[in-house]
Amino acid sequence: MQLRIPGPTPIPEEILQTMTRQMINHRGPQFAEMIHKATDILKAMFQTKGDVFLLTCSGTGGMEAAIVNTLSPGDKVLVVANGFFGERFADIAELFGAQVERLRFEWGRAVDPQEVRRALSQDTGIKAVLVTHNETSTGVTSDLEAISAVVREYQKLLIVDAISGLGSIDLPTDEWGCDVVITASQKGWMAPPGLAMVSVSERAWQAQAQAKMPKYYWDFAKAKSFLEKGQTPWTPAVSTVYALDAALELFQREGLKNIVARHARVGAKARDGIKSLGLSLFPDDSCVSNTITAVKVPEGLDSKKLLKILREEYSTVLAGGQQRLDGKIFRIGHLGYVSEEDIDAVMEALKAALPQAGFSG
User: How far is CA 185 from CA 120, 166, 167, 241, 318, in A?
Assistant: First the structure.
């Protein structure tokens, strides 16, 4: 089976096997050793000297945690949205009482840092900027380095959804001045769903000390206090921590630079393969993602039929479009446990299935 969706992603057999281990005491020394080791490796992957925490939740839980630990009801926030998950970030902030200004960009386009500058210059009361680095719904990677430079110029908090990018696409957290960065185990980390990983800067801690949004389960202060003892505040997803711990050993062995380079090669191969089949990419070539390739559905192609044929006849699972892009794009996930040979297999399946679904080329 070629599972090539943006998450959950395939897991190497050796990592799956670690999940068959018996449970351990999550308040005992064995777990403490494991979580400390995982946290140290994660700091290297986040490229940060700040705090990094494991939260038992999905990536969306990590997004909520980032918001409630840094903001208070009534705070003005600028949410930069160029896809489904940017809008989700804004929805969460609004639900907890923030005054949200949505700086929207066309889906399939990158965020324009100059528009971020314009928005910040027009409202000096904005406290934080929320941005999605790698928009899973559209296959777009925005220029976070340029965006972060603008945010730092205006001395605002920068909260980054890096759920489908970090660990696959370069994101030097400290160098770019990102205050909270969120990712999740089921994306590029070769582990099952169940964990969000978040980094917290010193500026974010200062904001956390003043934040008044309600929180209990998501309290970063509790997470920090318990991590000092080698624990989490609440019962963690122990089996998923086993898997992440094993995956991080593979990450360490391959090296972050090599991982980023591999994803660049795989992404380029996917895009070239799509074009060779006579299809077009959904995003502009200047902002394509190395973890997700979004493909326009041409006239005459029944995308739902295509996905069904791929799944049932060619053991290849791809993703459709979300929300307004339903039926208009399909997406190939190539993050985490993926090679160029996997992309070759996907392209062979597409080549055979496309005519069956109405594509004449």
Answer: 33, 10, 10, 9, 19
State how far the Cα of 213 lies from the Cα of 96, in Å rounded to an integer.
7
Helix 303-314, helix 340-353: angle, nearest 10:
120
- Domain endpoint, select from 229, 253, 277: 253
Structure tokens at 150: 């603008």
d(CA 189, CA 243): 9
Pairing of β 316-317 and β 2-3: parallel
What are 26-33's contacts with CB under 8 Å, separation 24+?
Answer: 26/231, 26/232, 26/235, 26/236, 26/238, 27/231, 29/230, 31/230, 31/231, 31/238, 31/241, 32/229, 32/230, 32/231, 33/230
Residue 92: both structure tokens together:
């969460």
> Is residue 271 located within the same domain as residue 231?
no
AA identity, residue 324: R
- Cα–Cα distance between 124 and 34 in angstroms, integer? 44
- Segment holding 105, helix H or strand E: none
Residue 165 — very low, low, confident or very high, per pLDDT cuts 50/70/90?
Answer: very high
Averaged pLDDT, 313-323: 98
What is the domain-level CATH number for residue 265? 3.90.1150.10
Print the domain residue range for 27. 13-253
Is residue 6, in this structure, part of any structural domain at all? Answer: no
Tens-digit pLDDT profile for residues 183-227: 999 999 999 999 999 999 999 999 999 999 999 999 999 999 999
Confidence of residue 361 (pLDDT cuts 50, 70, 90): confident
Q: What is the CATH number of the domain that holds 174?
A: 3.40.640.10
